[in-house]
Design brief:
three-stranded antiparallel β-sheet; four-stranded antiparallel β-sheet; 1 helix; mainly beta; about 0% helix
Amino acid sequence: MNRVYKKDCESYCEYTLPDYMGDVKKILCVNASAIPSGKFVGDGEVEFSGIVNYDILYSDSEGKLTRLAASSDYDLTVPADTERYVDSLAEPCILNVSTRLTGPRKLIAKAVVTNTATVCTQDSVETAGTAFAEGREPEVAKRRVSFGTLSFLNSPEREYAEEAERLAATTPDQIEIVATSGAVRIFESTPVENGVNVKGEIVITAIMRTDAEGLFAIKKNIPFDETVTFEAADSDMQTLFDGYLTSVTAGLAEDGEDTVVTVNAIAELFGVVGKSSECEIITDAYLKDGKSEAVYEDYTYCELLDMRTSEEGVSVSVPRTDIGCEYIRNILTLSADVRSLEKKTTDSGIELSGEIAFCGVACEINDDNSVGYIPIKHSFEFEEN
């Protein structure tokens, strides 16, 4: 039996800038990601814990674009019948994130994390009474039913590192790495012998600065082909996988007269493996030649119909006036998060609706030809079937 709970929790931290960073003049963009770290099965409940990583871009007192990183913990509990408990999984999603300055070098970061937790328990059927006493055979009514079972898998952390860019006639001391971000994309997951083969890519973006070119961005896609171990895997199983990055960085190395930019990421994959099985159950039993004291208890079961992933594109248009800047030179960074996701079953499938929040930083040229930075923050509703 699978029970699904949706529960919100808050994560909160206070952060003081180190001495080598400039004072905060204006916060431009705040991205947050929730990373699960563990679970604990207690008396009548399951406790899930994790970390929220904040990636903050701000303009300092000298007008320079600067990045800082902070983190905070979160935890929540959901009820569970620990005697029948089999396994559980919580998928966290950032519902809302906010920051507030409490001084030129201090800020408070807070995130609301919504978790979709699935708890799997094992059911059993028991009989009682004297229907089978004295060797008398009862008449029985039977039928076949299908029921679904789920297993939750996690891969160990895996490090990926590749060369992303080669900057000609430039030394590392002429380059500053302002910010680095990344994400995991899953293309397909297939059951194989003793596991699940997962294919996808890690997308890493780094914002850099040189005196000659100013700010610019580089992007690197690192493909991967991993097998997550699962001894009970077979070809009839359905799989649904995702992944997250626990660390993403960029580095510089001198190579002759050039500088090589390398990107580095530590990723972990997690997923659900499901299967539907059939069994024959007795729905009723009775004796023709006597009274029976037999009783039976009805029970419920869930059949697994389908699990799949699909990519859907959402296009939006934002006028320059809504951004608040008519002299945008380029968009330095832009990311989107799905928030407040709702699911509804219809005759034609499953309807997904919610909100997509865009967050980024644009570069503008001021009247005196100096460079300024403008935050981009907009939310749009979406609906997919």
